[in-house]
Write a structure and sequence with these properties.
Elements (H helix, E strand, L loop, with lengths): L1 H13 L7 E4 L5 H12 L3 E4 L4 H13 L4 E2 L14 H29 L2 E6 L12 H20 L5 E8 L8 H13 L9 H12 L10 E4 L12 H4 L1
Parallel strand pairs: 1-2, 2-3, 4-5, 5-6
Helix pairs in contact: 2-7, 4-5
Length: 241
C-alpha cells in the first residue's frame, strides 16, 4: 500500500512539474518574457531564450545563474490612426508580432512532435479580442495569433502538440510604461479589478498551460485582464441599491 501511495503521489506531482522538459522563450529578458523565464525555470524546465541586445541577455544570465536556473542562451506596437500607417509600419509590426511567431512554429514543429507532448503558448493581447486604441495593425496581428492558435491546435493535435494563446490587458512592463503613466486612470476605470496587472500574473498562466496538468486544454485564447473584456455596463450604485 505504501508503494502504491508513493506511485500515486509521484504521478500527481509530475502533473505539476516541468522537470526534464525544455522551453524556448523569445524576448525573455524584459517584462512578461522575463517573468515567463523565471516561472518555467522555477517549475523545473530547462530554458532557451533570446534578446534583442547582448547586454540585456548577459545581465539576465548573471541573475538567473545566481538563482540556479539552467539558461542557454518578442512583440511591439506603433500607435497611430490607420490612415497614417506606412507600408514600412505594416511590415515591421506584422513581421515582429505575427510572422516571427509563425516561422518559429514551423521550425519548432519537428522538435515538438518528437517530444511526444509539445506545448505552444502564444502571447497575444486583448486587442486581438476587443478594440483597444493601440493601432489597427497591432490588433490585427494579435487577432491573427489567436486564430493561428486555434488552427494549429487542430492540425497538430494528432502529434500530441497543444497550442493556446494568452491575451493580457495592460501589464506593468517597460513596453507600455509611458502609456500606463499617462492613462492609468482610464485603464483602471475599464478594469473591474481596479488595478494594472503584473508580469508574474501572466507568467503563472503560461506556466500552467505548459504543465502536464493542462494536458486536455488546447486551441484556447485566455484573456488575463482583470475582467476588462467582459466589462459591460452597470447602472450607478445609487440606482441599483
Amino acid at each position: 500500500m505504501a508503494d502504491e501511495a508513493a506511485d500515486v503521489s509521484g504521478c500527481r506531482n509530475n502533473r505539476w512539474s516541468l522537470h526534464g522538459m525544455t522551453a524556448l522563450v523569445t524576448g525573455g529578458t524584459k517584462g512578461i518574457g522575463y517573468a515567463i523565464v523565471e516561472e518555467l525555470a522555477g517549475l523545473g524546465a530547462r530554458i532557451h531564450t533570446c534578446s534583442r541586445t547582448e547586454t540585456d541577455l548577459n545581465r539576465c544570465l548573471l541573475d538567473w545563474e545566481a538563482k540556479g536556473f539552467q539558461i542557454n542562451n518578442v512583440g511591439t506596437f506603433i500607435s497611430k490612426p490607420t490612415p497614417e500607417f506606412t507600408t514600412e509600419d505594416f511590415s515591421f509590426i506584422m513581421g515582429t508580432n505575427f510572422e516571427s511567431a509563425y516561422n518559429f512554429c514551423q521550425l519548432a514543429y519537428p522538435l515538438l512532435k518528437a517530444s511526444g507532448r509539445g506545448s505552444i503558448v502564444f502571447l497575444s493581447s486583448v486587442s486581438g479580442v476587443v478594440t483597444v486604441s493601440v493601432g489597427s495593425i497591432y490588433g490585427a496581428t494579435k487577432g491573427a495569433i489567436n486564430q493561428l492558435a486555434k488552427y494549429l491546435a487542430c492540425e497538430w493535435a494528432k502529434d500530441n502538440i497543444r497550442v493556446n494563446s494568452v491575451a493580457p490587458w495592460f501589464i506593468r512592463t517597460p513596453l507600455v510604461e509611458s502609456i500606463i503613466e499617462n492613462f492609468s486612470e482610464a485603464i483602471i476605470s475599464r478594469t473591474p479589478m481596479g488595478r494594472i496587472g503584473e508580469p508574474d500574473e501572466v507568467s503563472s498562466l503560461v506556466g500552467f498551460l505548459c504543465l502536464p496538468a493542462a494536458s486536455y486544454m488546447t486551441g484556447q485564447t485566455i484573456c488575463i485582464d482583470g475582467g476588462m473584456t467582459v466589462n459591460g455596463f452597470f447602472y450607478p450604485e445609487t440606482l441599483t441599491g
